[in-house]
Amino acid sequence: MPADSNKALIVQSDRTLLLDVHCETAQSAQKAIMPFAELEKSPEHIHTYRITPLSLWNAASAGLTPQDVVKTLREHSRYDIPSGITEGFSLLMSRYGKIVMTEDKNSPNMLALLINDEAIRMEIGRIKALEKYLVKKDGGFSLELVHRGSVKRVLIRAGWPVQDDAPLSKGEDLQITLRDRCLSGRPFAPRDYQLSAARSVAGSGGPGSGYGVVVLPCGSGKTIVGMLIMSMLKTNTLILTTNVAAVHQWIEELLDKTELTQEQIAEYTGDCKAIAPVTVATYQIISWRPEKGADFPHFKLFRERQWGLVIYDEVHLLPAPVFRVTAELQALRRLGLTATLIREDGEEDAVFSLVGPKRYDVPWKDLEDKGWIAEAFCTEIRLDMPEHLKIPYASASPKEKYRLAAENPLKQNIVLQLVENHPEDHIMVIGQYLTQLNALAKLLNAPIITGKTPNAERDRIYSAFKKGELRLIVVSKVANFAIDLPDASMAIQVSGSFGSRQEEAQRLGRILRPKERNAWFFSLVSGYTVEEEFAANRQKFLTEQGYKYSIQKWEAA
After folding, report:
1. CA–centroid distance for 274 within its chain
2. Is the pLDDT of residue 458 over 70?
3. What's the whole-model pTM score?
4. How confident is the model at residue 468 (pLDDT cuts 50, 70, 90)?
5. Nearest alpha carbon to residue 5 among 27, 16, 20
6. Residue 27: CB partners within 8 Å, gap ≥ 6?
7. Alpha carbon separation from 196 to 103, 174, 175 (Å, rounded)
8. Helix spans in 62-93 (H)
9. Which pLDDT value is given to residue 25?
10. How far is CA 447 from CA 194, 453, 461, 492, 527, in A?
């Protein structure tokens, strides 16, 4: 058929979908493909989606058929769909539902894995990793309740997604009501996308609902999505997050925006180990053990109450040891919250099988265009290495090269100038190396937060920054995650973790809370060094997310 310029979608033979965002039908096309395609890039003009096995299985679990997928593509495609790829959709989607996990009514502590196809039963029976979990029975296999997550993870890696219809535990009831007006006095009403995200996970309450991952940009209110789901399910809730400061912020938000009392919420960290109907803990305390090979003593927290919901904040940081206990918690409703599903260890499939599939996603730029997050300008400033470091750099090992470039002393002058040039902004100077950060804190006469800063001191500095009593702070990578500093409008990144895309998303997110002014994100990079190579990876990520990224050469005065 001839090209139809009124249609926004271009379907390619490698299963990527290109969405022309300037086409008048782009919004309807985007909404139509979101259930079965993963957003990969969202720059200004063309957004890229990819159809993957995981995305198709997620669509199948939501009730879509291969015919629905093909019909949607044909309705929105500007050109003919490449031949052959639709058959692949049918083959992949048909795998979902061939293996059904349900309760074993004859054995109360067992589950049944039902497989009607004899050939599939034989294939599953030959998977060595499943031998310790499965027992053959008529029509499939049986397994213990505790192995529910482990079996699902092995099977999805083998290309067989499980239709999990086994019941979920209701947990102990807890009345959780959202306020119309915050305790702080401000009116409170969840945004439309927050409600949609919460409903996508809560579902109907029937089989296949009550678990999943929500992907939203930093600053868009993922905590509110968590509280919405809590108010829908009304059950004892365990919340796991990244650090003590994030624990305290969750507790503050719960008290501010729900009618829960102080007695109903507890902190479980290295500082305080209390348990209440709503308990907020750190990944660090959960994954702590006295020595390698020993048991994890704080795993007992998962069994201390009849939890009905577990919330994994910043789920992309879920530590590998917690995968084990998460695999045992498949009878609980589960919510993962994150700004990016990128895991530097490549364990995205573990999040999918143990926490749940992605239920909701929205491009960063969409929320920016609607005013829900601040407009951001990203600038990389390149500077030379000083003469006295050029020979030491040339003869250094790769690891030493990165540190020498990252700690380039000329960066101090640039930081000073940027701070002076932005007198109205609330600024965070972020870096990797403590020697560099301590020197900058002294130079700027600014407080510093590192991993060694006592929690009480961290809370004091963060509070002063939020109240406007401080406009400049220096922070290490401890501030990458789950820190809510709504008035931060500028970040100066002096060093980072080898071009980590995950870190870049989080650091940019620190300044994206909606505000009247634009947000500025500066990265200082030593030119003609390995730091420049790693910066290219970060630049690629930001441009893929739709942010204008400029490079400026710094000329010394």
Report:
1. 27
2. yes
3. 0.73
4. confident
5. 20
6. none
7. 30, 23, 22
8. 66-76, 85-93
9. 92
10. 35, 11, 7, 15, 29
